[in-house]
């Protein structure tokens, strides 16, 4: 009892001392993170005239005492925040400055490694990466590492998510593609200087400007007044996707007359990128004007676009890579009159215009309303041919050495399989094939010659053409966001959204390759039903039409999507506990409108299809427990439903109106997700450890490919896909001295199929089902698309003389191939011979773990008011050219000889560099 009394008395005495000490001050305050409202510990606070300094404590508080009466200037500095200076007058009475808010720094992209768009992207240039670090950086150590060091070479994706799991907005307007849900980073590629003002939320944490997705949300402020006042020019030299980059940016900042203007221009170009036959020519532009009328109202107009053309490359089978001695063999190009020409070209220009009105209704309430318009064309050019030899050098029948020696050297069932005695003979065959560009590359001269000799009535009928597969889009967006602080610690955020999207998806003739016309018929239907048949007509309203360059042919339809959404979110900030809760509701309607009457489906191709309607909702919430300003615990949970994408809703939209819902259950996807984190932040250490679990249910996926068995294009329909992703994330940054720091990131996850799903298949030009619904035995298969283990450790030295150098080591593992579902269905399971030769595995192939290193350095100079910066980054410093980042099993298969069509692989670039010099004032 006496001990308890003694302890109580001691505690009371200590408390009295603390209270007395805190009341015996001249000036005090509390430093707070503007966004999170959390206290900032270990911020440096100094009074300039007195040369006094102190550090904020764990609750973000600071105190000064013993000041004389007079005027003072207070400075607050913290590594990750913009500095703040403020003046105050001390009259002898204690001053409480209250809460002082610091804003997170926007890092200078000159000092960052570069993410480049590569050939794992889909045809639109939409990256599978879901991190906004493509154009900016995050304060979070792990996210920053995942964006650059782990994301650039290893193609790592945070938590295994595709970019459609993240909501991307500009001035509050959704930028995700409406047909796929993915983020098209190339829509603003090259505009780094004006895309820095970002608000990034990872995972299912609270979002400032939207409800967000399971992968988080990113909003970029593209207002003119938000741009840094400067004139800046830069030039970069690289050996990655492009060779040269020039950028020029000028921004006035907010002028005294209430106007602000900003403009940016860039060009990136090369005759060939790291992979041969990949020319690149991309431009970008940005113009913004803002008028601040008064303290309550401002209006901003922003227009930007990024026209681009780039040659593409593709994956190949390993025997080809080995045979030609190059893991970057690209079959998409060839020589025309002695010059390199690509047969697969991405071509995009879809400008965006945003009109944003900011209304400060009161000191505590703000309404942000934006209207957006996006339009333009995007797609790719590629070869097409009629009743003649397939021109692709990687078409399996055209790979002469592989076909010649398959039965002996390459067939696992052969006694001479990989026989060293045959190696010289095989290598000689590959050497002859690869050294003859008329065989190993596209033979443009031959195609022109074939067309020139095709003399029919009416002129030269094309056997070969270059066709353009395009989407001409028109998208109208309206978004209104209300933010209100209804009390000192309670904030309400709500929004309304409407999206009106129409895309005309069609083919047109780009180049007749010397011929006079192309006949618009379906050659696959013609083979089955005969020449001149109705079934072979692409459009019964225009039979046997002769089309020329610029004409639309083949297919032509509209994808229509209408989306209405609303969300409401409440957040409460407390001394020890912060928490939030949010909900969203949406209604989505989509339908196909055919602009051609297809001969195979005369009653089900022209005009509007039935409308597909989806009502979806989501709820999420989270809490943060603040032990003090350094130690914090966070927990979040969400349940979200979302509609299937348009691309996954129609069996064969190129030919007919039939939806997946007509042959199977087309359901909204349901997502359950949660995460728990511990964070520690001080002046020396920044640490986060997170555990997460996400379950995705009822996903639908469509795949289209040419199937030899049916001699036509076939559509695989996968329904009832359930997937679970779970694991750990860790980010750590330790400042060992004012100049030297060590940082690390670790991701250990499992992304896998949670259960079996169903597959069935239909032809493009026939209603007949070619594969009845069958179960695919996919349970516990690992998912493809990203390394599921990724590690980084880096060191960095920052000199007081304004130069720096950094070195990073990376390791990637648990990389899996995308598998062919038909090789894991009931028919295959009952056919034991398919996997008997040992060359195919029942489970998806796991690729070898790989190690890479990255180097970066920079130097800056200030001459009067002019800043000059020089920066270099080298990725894959050790030139690891054996790093297979992924790939897929071919959908083309032969059950009698399953190893005849081996998997195709992607390789990470070897050593690449990016050298940038900039000047700004």
Offer a quick outline of the entry:
This is TonB-dependent receptor. This protein is mainly beta and 921 residues long. It has two domains: 2-102, Immunoglobulin-like; 109-160 and 262-385 and 466-920, Maltoporin, Chain A, CATH 2.40.170.20.
Please summarize the sheet with the most strands.
27 strands, antiparallel
Number of domains: 2
- Runs in which pLDDT lies below 50 for 5 or more consecutive residues are 1-22, 108-137
- What is the count of β-strands? 50
Q: Number of helix segments?
A: 11
Derived structural class:
mainly beta
Q: What is the rounded distance between the termini?
A: 72 Å
What is the name of the CATH topology of the largest domain?
A: Maltoporin, Chain A
Beta-strand residue percentage: over 45%
Secondary-structure arrangement, i.e. CATH architecture of the largest domain: Beta Barrel
What sort of overall outline do the alpha carbons produce when their principal axes are compared?
globular
């Amino acid at each position: 009892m006496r001990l308890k009394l003694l302890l109580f008395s001691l505690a009371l005495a200590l408390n009295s001392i603390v209270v007395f000490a805190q009341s015996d001050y001249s000036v005090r305050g509390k430093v707070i993170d503007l966004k999170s409202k959390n206290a900032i510990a270990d911020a440096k606070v100094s009074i300039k005239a007195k040369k006094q300094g102190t550090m904020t404590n764990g609750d973000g508080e600071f105190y000064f005492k013993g000041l004389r009466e007079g005027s003072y200037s207070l400075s607050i500095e913290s590594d990750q925040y913009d500095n703040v200076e403020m003046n105050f007058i001390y009259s002898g009475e204690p001053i409480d400055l209250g809460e002082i808010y610091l804003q997170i720094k926007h890092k200078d992209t000159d000092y960052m490694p570069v993410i480049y768009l590569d050939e794992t992207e889909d045809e639109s240039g939409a990256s599978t990466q879901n991190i906004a670090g493509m154009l900016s950086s995050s304060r979070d150590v792990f996210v920053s590492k995942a964006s650059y060091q782990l994301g650039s070479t290893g193609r790592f994706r945070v938590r295994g998510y595709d970019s459609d799991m993240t909501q991307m907005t500009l001035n509050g307007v959704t930028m995700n593609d409406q047909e796929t849900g993915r983020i098209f980073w190339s829509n603003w590629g090259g505009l780094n200087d004006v895309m820095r003002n970002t608000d990034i939320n990872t995972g299912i944490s609270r979002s400032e400007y939207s409800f967000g997705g399971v992968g988080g949300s990113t909003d970029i402020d593209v207002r003119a007044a938000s741009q840094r006042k400067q004139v800046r020019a830069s030039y970069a030299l690289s050996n990655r996707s492009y060779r040269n980059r020039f950028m020029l940016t000028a921004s006035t900042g907010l002028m005294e007359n209430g106007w602000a203007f900003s403009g940016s221009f860039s060009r990136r170009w090369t005759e060939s990128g790291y992979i041969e036959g990949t020319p690149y020519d991309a431009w970008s532009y940005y113009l913004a004007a803002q008028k601040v009328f008064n303290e309550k109202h401002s209006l901003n107009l922003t227009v930007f676009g990024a026209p681009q053309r780039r040659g593409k490359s593709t994956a190949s089978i390993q025997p080809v890579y080995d045979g030609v001695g190059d893991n970057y063999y690209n079959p998409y190009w060839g020589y025309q009159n002695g010059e390199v020409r690509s047969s697969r070209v991405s071509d995009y220009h879809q400008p965006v215009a945003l009109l944003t009105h900011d209304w400060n209704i009161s000191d505590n309430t703000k309404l942000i309303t934006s209207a957006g318009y996006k339009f333009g064309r995007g797609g790719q050019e590629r070869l097409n041919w009629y009743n003649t030899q397939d021109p692709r050098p990687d078409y399996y029948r055209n790979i002469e050495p592989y076909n010649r020696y398959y039965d002996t050297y390459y067939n696992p069932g052969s006694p001479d399989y990989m026989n060293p005695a045959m190696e010289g003979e095989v290598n000689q065959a590959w050497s002859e094939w690869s050294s003859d560009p008329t065989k190993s590359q596209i033979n443009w001269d031959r195609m022109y010659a074939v067309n020139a000799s095709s003399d029919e009535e009416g002129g030269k009928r094309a056997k070969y053409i270059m066709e353009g597969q395009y989407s001409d889009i028109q998208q109208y967006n309206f978004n209104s966001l209300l933010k209100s602080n209804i009390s000192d610690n309670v904030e309400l955020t709500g929004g309304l959204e409407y999206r009106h999207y129409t895309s005309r998806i069609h083919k047109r003739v780009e180049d007749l390759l010397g011929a006079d016309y192309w006949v618009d018929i379906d050659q696959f239907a013609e083979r089955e039903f005969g020449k001149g048949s109705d079934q072979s007509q692409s459009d019964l309203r225009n039979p046997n039409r002769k089309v020329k360059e610029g004409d639309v042919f083949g297919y032509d339809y509209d994808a229509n999507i209408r989306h209405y959404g609303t969300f409401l979110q409440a957040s409460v900030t407390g001394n020890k506990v912060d928490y939030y809760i949010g909900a969203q509701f949406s209604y989505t309607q989509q339908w196909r409108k055919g602009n051609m009457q297809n001969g195979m489906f005369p009653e089900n191709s022209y005009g509007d299809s039935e409308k597909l309607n989806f009502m979806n909702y989501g709820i999420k919430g989270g809490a943060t427990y603040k032990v003090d300003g350094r130690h914090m615990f966070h927990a979040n949970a969400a349940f979200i439903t979302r509609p299937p994408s348009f691309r996954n809703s129609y069996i064969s939209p190129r030919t007919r109106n039939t939806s997946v819902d007509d042959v199977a259950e087309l359901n909204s996807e349901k997502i359950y997700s949660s995460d728990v984190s511990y964070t520690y932040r001080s002046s020396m250490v920044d640490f986060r450890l997170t555990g997460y679990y996400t379950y995705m249910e009822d996903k639908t996926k469509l795949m289209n490919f040419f199937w030899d068995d049916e001699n036509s294009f076939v559509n695989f329909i996968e329904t009832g896909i359930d997937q679970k992703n779970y694991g750990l994330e860790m980010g750590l940054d330790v400042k060992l001295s004012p100049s030297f720091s060590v940082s690390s990131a670790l991701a250990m996850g499992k992304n896998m199929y949670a259960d079996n799903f169903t597959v069935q298949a239909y032809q493009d030009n026939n209603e007949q089902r070619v594969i009845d619904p069958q179960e695919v035995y996919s349970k516990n298969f690992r998912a493809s698309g990203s390394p599921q283990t990724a590690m980084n450790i880096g060191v960095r030295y920052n000199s007081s003389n304004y130069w720096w150098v950094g070195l990073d080591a990376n390791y990637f593992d648990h990389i899996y191939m995308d598998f062919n579902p038909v090789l894991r269905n009931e028919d295959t399971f009952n056919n034991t011979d398919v996997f008997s030769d040992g060359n195919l595995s029942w489970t998806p192939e796991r690729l070898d773990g790989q190690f890479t290193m990255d180097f970066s350095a920079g130097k800056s100079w200030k001459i009067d008011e002019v800043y000059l910066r020089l920066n270099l980054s080298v990725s894959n410093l050790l030139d690891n050219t054996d790093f297979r980042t992924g790939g897929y099993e071919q959908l083309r298969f032969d059950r009698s000889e399953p190893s005849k069509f081996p998997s195709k692989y992607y390789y990470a670039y070897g050593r690449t560099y990016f050298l940038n010099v900039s000047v700004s004032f």
